[in-house]
Design a protein that fits this description.
The chain is α+β, with helices and mostly antiparallel strands and 355 residues long. It has two domains: 88 residues; 243 residues, Bira Bifunctional Protein, Domain 2 (BirA Bifunctional Protein, domain 2, 2-Layer Sandwich). Helix content is 39%, strand content 18%. The protein has eleven helices and nine strands. It has a seven-stranded mixed beta sheet, sandwiched between helices. It has a two-stranded antiparallel sheet with strand order 2-3. It binds adenosine-5'-[phenylalaninyl-phosphate]. Adenosine-5'-[phenylalaninyl-phosphate] (FA5) binds next to strand 5, strand 8, strand 9 and helix 10. This is Phenylalanine--tRNA ligase alpha subunit.
Length: 355
């Protein structure tokens, strides 16, 4: 038996193995020696040409060669894997001395904050929150509120019409009409309805063509004007400070009778007169009144049995008063220098000074 061929194969393999640097060329080498058509496999096939006496020793030698090659390949494979891991760890090193990334913490928009405060107050009094549709029908925005077509009071709210019957709601009052209709004239109602409204007003320091309103509505048996007054007094003290007084002035809304404008005593000058209250000592904050019998009747309520009050306020104007914002347009122009002044402090409080 000539074993020089095996020695030759082993030597050649050792030389080739020296040049291998990655897993792929190691696999190629493995195929070249141990694969189906590999050189060691070729030696195995030679066995059939040997005599019975020669065969065991030859087989033993070839197996030895195969084991050596397999062991070398395994060793090399472990080396390559370790080197790759080393390389990866080197690249993934974290430099803990680098400065950290700065995260900008957002802040709640002043209008959202006012709306949440007002919602919290009314939820505490047992009110439900109801939302309606910004795109409304003429019927719920006007007719169901005692404002038939061509009623002159429609001019009080210049309207964006989408078609003759569809419009962008001009106030949140259509929500009261819808809820009353839903309750089918039987159940008591106690709701507030916050949301966006739209009017064809020219934008200026106190007017925006899109702004927010919060509507309030209470309908039940034995609801009186004194309930409205008591509720709004509590509201004014909660939102503007405990020393606030309110004043009701006669007014007109087609959906309430009687109707009132509600003023609060000025929180800046305490009634003495200043630039915020235009020297009058009072600031107008909302419109309100007792629900008109026609509105109750149209929704299926019997006005002899049920009565109610409603009010509507503008959170934009409330935010302007509370934070001393002199121009309503600041609330809508997304200037970060403005918004950042309303960042909340860590304990959830405000870091802006109320006027
Ligand atoms: C109404 O819209 C009535 N629906 C309110 C109401 C409800 C009365 C229920 C009675 C019963 P008025 O048009 O006054 O009323 O608007 C209410 C509030 O919206 C105003 O006090 C004001 O704060 C705000 N507002 C009105 N127009 C604008 C505007 N263009 N920009 C910003 N705020 C406005």
């Amino acid at each position: 038996m000539d074993t020089s061929q095996m020695t030759h194969i082993q030597d050649e393999f050792d030389v080739s193995l020296e040049t291998v640097e990655d897993a792929r060329s190691l696999q190629d080498l493995k195929v070249r020696y141990l694969g189906k058509k590999g050189r060691v496999t070729g030696l195995m096939k030679e066995m059939k040409n040997l005599s019975n006496e020669e065969r065991p020793a030859y087989g033993q030698k070839v197996n030895e060669l195969r084991r050596n090659i397999e062991a070398s390949i395994e060793e090399k494979s472990a080396e390559i894997e370790a080197a790759a891991l080393e390389e990866r760890l080197k690249n993934e090193t974290i430099d803990v001395t680098l400065p950290g990334r700065k995260f900008n913490i957002g802040s709640q928009h002043p209008i959202s904050r006012i709306i949440e405060d007002i919602e919290d107050f009314f939820i505490g009094l047992g009110y439900e929150i109801q939302e309606g549709y910004e795109v409304e029908t003429d019927y719920y925005n006007f007719e169901a509120l005692n404002l038939p077509k061509s009623h002159p009071a429609r001019d009080m709210q210049d309207t964006f019409y989408i078609s003759e019957e569809i419009l962008l709601r001009t106030h949140t009052s259509p929500v009261q009409a819808r809820v009353l209709e839903d309750r089918k004239g039987k159940e008591a109602v106690k709701i507030i309805c916050p949301g966006k409204v739209y009017r064809r007003d020219s934008d200026d320091a106190t007017h925006s063509h899109q702004f927010t309103q919060i509507e309030g509505l209470v309908v039940d048996k034995n609801i009186h004007m004194s309930d409205l007054k008591g509720t709004l007094e509590l509201f004014a003290k909660e939102i503007f400070g405990t020393e606030r007084e309110i004043r009701l002035r006669p007014s007109f809304f087609p959906f309430t009778e009687p109707s009132v404008e509600v003023d609060i005593s000025c929180f800046k000058c305490k009634g003495a007169g200043c630039n915020v209250c235009k020297q009058s000592g009072w600031i107008e904050i909302l419109g309100a009144g007792m629900v008109h019998p026609n509105v109750l009747r149209m929704a299926g309520y019997d006005p002899d049995e049920y009565s109610g009050f409603a009010f509507g306020m503008g959170p934009d104007r409330v935010a302007m008063l509370r934070y001393g914002i002199e121009d309503i347009r600041h609330l809508y122009t997304n200037d970060l220098r403005f918004i950042n002044q309303f960042k909340q402090t860590e304990d959830g409080g405000e870091n802006v000074e109320s006027i």
